[in-house]
């Protein structure tokens, strides 16, 4: 497995859940992280505990300028960028007519455009150095769909399709593109939009640290191999 010591990784949606867990897991392996999210106070708390191995950027993934600022912060603070974890996303439970126009538009914009913009910010640097990793955090819903999550699933299918196309576009330039597709994970996902704290089944879901470990493993793989799609679910989760 590759040593991640000194590797620089930018992470979107890094203020909570899988993004925050990934930042901690990567720093535990010696990596340096550039953290992007809207809740800057949470990012700054992580930076304060990082021993100088993290930098925080207040950003909204719907804004291309925010993604460019995240990459610029990684370059300015740590002198490079080796990987991007495109993790930011939101979800909500409900049938096709149950959610408001505004909620659906927000979900599509954050989950799809909010994946494209960080990648577009990182790729020019990866091309210049002839090396890089892109990890997209999607969902098992992006492989098989999900009841009462049709639009959410559509955004996750879009991420899987984006990753497949990018793999074909970038792999001969030594840039790897992996998609992580977790099942139910106990995070703030859909909290107040179909999930409630303490709801039945939440304790049986995977933990964000489980997904973070998968992301670390993908980045540790020898450069001679690549992971295309890695899907995982809790042993208790039903089909």
Walk me through the structure:
This protein is an alpha/beta fold. The chain has a single domain (8-232), classed as NAD(P)-binding Rossmann-like Domain (Rossmann fold, 3-Layer(aba) Sandwich). 43% of the residues lie in helices and 16% in strands. It contains seven helices and seven strands; from the N terminus they run βαβαβαβαβααβαβ. The chain has a seven-stranded parallel sheet with strand order 3-2-1-4-5-6-7, sandwiched between helices. Helix 1 (17-28) crosses helix 7 (208-220), helix 3 (64-78) packs parallel to helix 4 (101-129) and helix 4 (101-129) packs parallel to helix 6 (150-170).
Q: Please describe the biggest sheet, giving its number of strands, its sense, and whether it closes into a barrel.
A: 7 strands, parallel
Q: How many domains make up the coordinates?
A: 1
Q: Whole-number average pLDDT?
A: 93
Tell me the CATH topology. Answer: Rossmann fold
Shape: globular
- Beta-strand fraction estimate: 15-25%
Tally of separate helices: 7
Unreliable runs: none
What's the CATH H-level superfamily name? NAD(P)-binding Rossmann-like Domain
**What would you say the CATH architecture is?**
3-Layer(aba) Sandwich
Number of strands: 7
The whole-angstrom Rg is 17 Å
H/E element sequence: EHEHEHEHEHHEHE
């Amino acid at each position: 497995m590759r040593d991640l010591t000194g590797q620089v990784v930018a992470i979107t949606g890094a203020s909570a859940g899988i993004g925050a867990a990934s930042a901690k897991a990567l720093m535990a392996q010696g990596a340096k992280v550039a953290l992007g999210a809207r809740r800057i106070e949470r990012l700054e708390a992580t930076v304060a505990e990082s021993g100088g191995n993290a930098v925080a950027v207040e950003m909204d993934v719907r804004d291309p300028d925010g993604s460019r600022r995240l990459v610029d912060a990684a370059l300015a603070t740590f002198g490079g960028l080796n990987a991007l974890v495109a993790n930011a996303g939101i979800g909500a439970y409900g049938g096709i007519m149950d959610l408001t126009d505004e909620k659906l538009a927000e979900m599509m914009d954050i989950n799809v455009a909010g994946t494209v913009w960080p990648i577009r910010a990182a790729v020019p640097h990866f091309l210049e150095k002839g090396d890089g990793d892109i990890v997209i955090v999607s969902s098992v819903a992006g492989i098989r769909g999900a009841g009462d999550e049709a639009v959410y699933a559509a955004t996750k299918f879009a991420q899987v399709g984006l990753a497949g196309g990018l793999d074909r576009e970038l792999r001969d330039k030594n840039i790897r593109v992996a998609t992580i597709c977790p099942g139910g994970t106990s995070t703030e996902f859909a909290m107040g939009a179909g999930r409630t704290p303490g709801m039945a089944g939440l304790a049986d879901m995977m933990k964000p640290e489980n997904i973070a470990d998968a992301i670390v493993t993908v980045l540790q793989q020898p450069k001679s191999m690549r992971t295309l799609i890695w899907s995982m679910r809790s042993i208790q989760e039903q089909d």
